[in-house]
Amino acid sequence: MYHMILLVVDNPDQCPSVLDAWEELGVGGITILDSTGLGRLRKAGIRDDIPLMPSLSHLLKGREERHRTIFTVVEGEEWVDRIIGKTQEIMGDLNEANVGVLFVLPVSRVVGLQGGQSRAQKGK
Question: Cα separation of 72 and 113, whole Å?
Fold first, then answer.
């Protein structure tokens, strides 16, 4: 069975290490998105004052807190366990506050997944 793994990284500085670790495991087809949570948005205040063509100095003055959301699709529970284990080695216990959140969703059908897991790593 295929699984989608979604990881929200609270500290964006940890993202490169997590991505490197996932690649070392043989995970491919990783997508990274900038994201933010509602709590952070409310804390910072929803900004509607950003000009259409902001300058770099304007953006640096009012920088919003961001997360990174990483996701991929893998085949088999073994992959899920390996990815969770390696992720927590890097980020720490995801059950602690302000570390991040990882969740796994079953995927009933996959079309066009050529890069999900490297062939050499499949079934390890």
Answer: 10
| Tokens linked to 124 | 């390890």
Q: Tens digit of pLDDT per residue, the chain (124 long)?
A: 999 999 999 999 999 999 999 999 999 899 999 988 877 667 766 555 555 555 555 445 544 567 899 999 999 999 999 999 999 999 999 999 989 999 999 999 888 876 555 444 444 4
Q: What are the φ/ψ torsions at residue 94 (nearest 5 degrees)?
A: -70, -10
Taken in order of first residue, the domains within the chain and their CATH numbers are 2-107 (3.30.70.120)
Instruction: Name which of 91, 90, 111, 108 is nearest 100 in CA terms.
Output: 91
CA distance 103 to 47: 29
> Cα–Cα distance between 25 and 118 in angstroms, integer?
9
Regarding pTM above 0.85, the answer is no
Contacts for 65 with CB less than 8 Å, ≥ 6 apart: 36, 40, 43, 44
